[in-house]
Here is the input.
Amino acid sequence: MCGIIGRVGTDEAIDTLLTGLENLEYRGYDSAGVAVQNGSGIKIQKQSGKVAELKQAIDSDLLSGEVGIGHTRWSTHGPPTDENAHPHTDSTRDVAVVHNGIIENYATLKSSLQELGHEFESDTDTEVIPHLIQYYLDEGASAETAFRRAIDDLEGSYAVAAMVANEHVLYAARQGSPLVVGLDDDGFFLASDVPAFLEYTDDVVYLEDGDVVVVRPDGVEFTTLEGHAIDRQPETVAWDPEQAGKGEYDHFMLKEIHEQPTSLAQAIEGRIQGDEPGEVALESFPPGAFDGIERIQFVACGTSYHAALYGSIAMNQCGIQTSAHLANEYGVSAPPVDENTLVIAVTQSGETADTLNAMRRAEADGARLLTVTNVVGSTAARLADDVLLIRAGPEIGVAATKTFSSQAVMLLLLAQCIIDDLDGTCEDRRALYNDLSGLPDTFSSILEDGTAKALAEQYLGAESYFFIGRGLGFPVALEGALKFKEITYEHAEGFASGELKHGPLALVTPETPVFAIFTGDEDEKVLNNAEEAQTRGAPLVAVCPAGHRAVDIADAHLDIPAVDPDLAGLLANVQLQLLSYHAADALGRPIDKPRNLAKSVTVE
Ligand code: M6R
Here is the structure.
C-alpha cells in the first residue's frame, strides 16, 4: 500500500503535495518524494524515510511549479532506499511517475526495454512505466497517447499518475488500486484517498477500474483507456479531515479488522500456484531450501508469539520438530542451537527489541535465521539470512489484528515448504490450500455478522473473560484474551481447554463468560472442558460453525464457516477481534492507542 498525490493548479504545488503526503502517510512511510514542473523541466526530490524528513530536506525554491506529483511508499519491490523512492523517471528525466499497486509483468517489460537500451536505476516494478512512456514518445506519440499505450502494456493492479516535461497536464489511470480526483476553485487534486486533500476540498470524483483521466488547469477529462469520454459525477464527502484517515471507520483497529480480506489476499498472492492445486511457491525458498535443518525454533512476542505458536503447532502436527519461544525468555530457556537449527523470528514491526535480542543470540550460536515480518528493511529483516514478507500493509492501531492473520497464513505456507523438504507426515494438504485460497472471501462473510457486538454488550461488566481452545485453538484463545485485555482494560485470560480443570476452574462463576473455540480437531474434548465450566455457572459461548453440537449446548454462539481445521482458528479469531473491539468501544476506551502501550516496543 502506498500513497499518491497529484496537483494541477494556478498556485505553487509543493506545499499542497507535502500536506497530501503527510495525510497519506498511514498508507506507508518507508520513503517519500515529489516531482514538480513549471515549464523548465521536471524537478524531483525523494529519499528514504518519513515525509517529515523529506519536508525538512526540501528546497521550495528549486521545486517551484504549479503541476506536481508526490508519493509515500510502503515497499513491495526493493528495499526502502533513495533510489527506490518514487517518483521514478525515464533516462531523459522528461517523464515522472508515481504508482501504487503491483505491476505483475514488470520483469518481462523491463527486459524488453533493457534490450532496447533503456537503463534502470531502481529495483522497483514502477520504473518500467516512465520508460514505456518514453519509448512511445520516442516513437512520435503525443504525451497523452504515450501514456495510454504504456498503461495498456501493464498487467496487475495500479493507480498511476504521470507528468511529461513542459506540459501543464497530469495523466492518471486506475486498475485495482484506489484513485480519487478532488476539485477546488484553483485546480485539481489526484490522490489515493480523500484525506490527502480534505483540507482544500470535499468535492470528489472516485475513479473506477479502467478509467484514464487527463487533468489540466481548466478541467478534467474522464475517459476509457481507448479515449472515449465517460460520465463521472462529483460528490461531496461528509468527512471530518481528522477522521478521514480511518475511512468510514471510527477507529483504525476496526478498519484494519475489515482490511483482512485484502491483506490476506496480498499475503497469498502468487504463493499458491503450480499445476497441482495447493502447490506452494515461496520466493527465496525453492525445493531443498530447508534440507539439513534438524529443528526449528520460533521467537516472538505478544500477538506475534501467538502467530508463531500457531505455526509451530501446525508444523508439529505434521511431524516437524519445532518449538515456540517468547523472545524475552529465549535467552534463559532456549533448547540447544547449532548450524542445523532454523530460528524463525515473527515480528510485525521487525523492530521489537526482545525479538532482535533472541535473534542475535541464536545467530551467535550458529543458527540460520529467517524473519517473517510486515516491514521491508526493518532491523529483523536485515539481521536474518532470509525474509518472508506478510504484505499486510501498514497497521496503525496498537492492537495487532490483520498482521496476526497474515502471519499465521504465511507460516502455514512456509510449513508446506518445510514439510516437503524435511519429509513431514502431512503429504496431501490440497484441501487446506484450496480453503486458504478462498480465505479472503470467508473472512468477508464473518465481518458482516453483528453477533460479536451484541455479545460484547450483553456480557459487559463481567468479572473476567476466559477464552479456551485446544491444538490450533489454543493460540487463538491466548490471542483472544490478549486483545480483550489490551483494549478493554478488563481482566481476560486464555487457556488450553484441558488446563481449566488443573486450576483456573476455581475462578469460574456466573460472572465469567467462557468463549470456547472449536476448530474441528478434538472438539469433543473441548466441549467436555467447556461444559465443566458451564456446569459451574459460567455462560458458555461456542465459537464454531452452525450445526456444530456445541451450539445446542452453549448459551450463545459466534458463527464461523466450516473450513479445514488448520484455518478454523483464524476465523474464530476474527469473531474475537470484533468482540474485543465492541466491548472496548462500549466502554469508551481509546482503542487505537491503549494506555501504557506502543505499537513497536524497542526496549527490553
Ligand atoms: O512488532 P512485533 O510483532 O514484534 O510486536 C510484538 C508485540 O509487541 C505485539 O504483537 C503486541 O503484542 C501487539 N501490539 C498486541 O496487539
